[in-house]
Design goal:
InterPro entries: RmlC-like_jellyroll (IPR014710), RmlC_Cupin_sf (IPR011051). This is Cysteine dioxygenase. The protein has helices at residues 2-7, 13-27, 34-42, 147-153; strands spanning 47-51, 58-64, 69-73, 80-98, 104-114, 119-122, 127-143, 161-163, 166-168. It is an alpha+beta fold. The chain has a single domain, classed as Jelly Rolls, CATH 2.60.120. The strands form 2 sheets. Strands 1, 2, 3, 4, 5, 6 and 7 form a 7-stranded antiparallel beta sheet that branches. The protein has a two-stranded antiparallel sheet with strand order 8-9. Strand 1 and strand 2 (58-64) form a beta hairpin. The protein is globular.
Length: 170
């Protein structure tokens, strides 16, 4: 986290790549390290590991059971790095597409399987879903800002709903 904090500034390719490398390296840590052994023992659904007091970025750990599906969503103004420490997570990506009636819906772009030690970056506005295909899975989620605040207070996170096989904003 110190390396990311030292390089912190407005989002650009260099910062996103640095965060990707750092969070991916974290996902490759030995499960015998005490902090990681504790996570594996407790298996928290959500645990904050670090919050930068100066820049506000947050690192969380999530254990997800097999077959847990999180529908398409974005992260508001935030960019995010996900990394898998244990298990496998399928991350689907979507594009927002205007419909003939003026409404917006999602078109599935691709699915990527994140395995142990792999990370992926999602920029502001990116829409994705997650499916735990081999679990329990331990994910690390690095967020540019506190997503609870972004979601519950600022109401900037969009969670898409499915209706007749079409994903659209509520």
């Amino acid at each position: 986290m110190a390396t990311i904090s030292a390089a912190w500034g407005p989002l650009n390719s260099s910062l996103a790549q640095l965060a990707h490398r750092q969070i991916e390296a974290l996902a490759k840590a030995s499960p015998e390290e005490p902090w990681l052994a504790s996570l594996h023992h407790d298996r928290p659904a959500n645990r904050e590991l670090y919050r930068d007091p100066r820049h506000g970025f947050v690192l969380l750990a999530h254990f997800e059971p097999p077959a847990l599906y999180r529908p398409p969503h974005d992260h508001g103004r935030s960019w995010v790095v996900y990394a898998v420490q244990q298990g496998e997570i399928e991350m689907g990506t979507y594009d927002r597409v205007p419909g003939a009636d003026g409404t917006e819906h999602l078109a599935h772009r691709q699915a990527t399987l994140l395995r142990q030690g792999c990370a992926s970056v999602y920029l502001p506005g990116d829409v994705h879903d997650t499916l735990c295909v081999a679990g329990p899975a331990l994910l690390f989620r690095f967020t540019e800002r506190d997503l609870k605040h972004e979601d519950l207070t600022e109401h900037r996170v969009t969670r898409f709903k499915e209706h007749n096989g079409v994903w659209s904003a509520p």
